[in-house]
Design a protein that fits this description.
Length: 410
Amino acid sequence: MAAKNFGCRVVNRSKSSVVFMILFALLMFSMLADSIVSKISLESAAFNQKRDYQALQSLKVVRNIKRDVVFPLPLTVSTQNKIIKVDNEHGIGKFRRRRLPGYEIFMSDELTKKFHGRVLEFFNHGCEVHFFMTWIAKVGSFGRREIMAVESVFKAHPNGCLMILSRTMDSVQGYRILKPLLDRGFKVLAVAPDLPFLVKNTPAEAWLDDMKSGKKDPGEIPLAQNLSNLLRLAVLYKYGGVYLDTDFIVLRSFKGLKNTIGAQSIDVVSKNWTRLNNAVLVFDMNHPLVLKFIEEFALTFDGNKWGHNGPYMVSRVVRGVEGRAGYNFTILPPTAFYPVDWMKIGSLFKLPKDSAGWRWIEAKVWQLKRQTYGVHLWNKQSSKLMVEEGSVMGRLMAENCVLCKHVYSS
């Protein structure tokens, strides 16, 4: 019995030793595994830290390079949320661009697809002169001043034709505004323009694609202003004729003008022009100078500088091509279209205070009738001015209207 009990104790001790050895082996393996994992983690962290440090240094190097150096980066444009993602080797960043106004003029639809046919049909009625204006604002903003400009066109050209490029005016409300003129037999029509069609196969086609896709920044200047700058060029190149701003009062016939642009200012000593303006343009179809204007507009577009794509643009182009063969055009002096500087336009709206002022008005009206095709009103400066009865502007409006209603309202 004692021997049997001893045997049991020996067996139990043997089992305990085996269990102890297994537990010890598991403990050692666990410690070894922890050591290996810790080492790998430390090496990985060191590698990541080194890589992040190198990336940071790389970014610092980029930032230290001159600011005017541009690096080409692949762009992914989202037109829905107006976010541009910049994909580069350091990850994906985001920056907001100025929101592109939702102008319907960028689109072609069933209405605009009729544009070319409507133009050909409209001007196929014995028009003495083909006139164009643009209107990208709301139809309700086409007010008394704009109607006066339209009236003056027909006062000097009873057999002329005027097309207003405007989606908003090409409507029931726009028709009602123009109906009094239509009732008197004048040929005036508002037509929604097809901008993609007008710029097709011109340097502005790529510009329009970039603008619609978000690759081109529209800038801080109201885009309507620059769209008007482009529209007038595109329609003159496509069809030829006369372009007029809607703040222009016509005083006499344009019938004798051909391929003409007006100077806004001249040097008082040399009498050479110092700045041109695009408020009035008279050009034949497919004229090379107009194509050059379109090219300059597209290649040097800057939506953050007032006048850069308009008056300053035509001045840059003419200065570069003036005197070169193949460009036949005439530059008229400021008295033709811009007889009064924009800073002094207010003087034409006011009554004189004494007899000398009345004599000045008489002399000014006489001078304008003899030397001027029309007067640009510089609407940005004069839109809020009242036309005082008896003033130079009051006289001009009263003598060059056809409806002659509310002549003295602004």
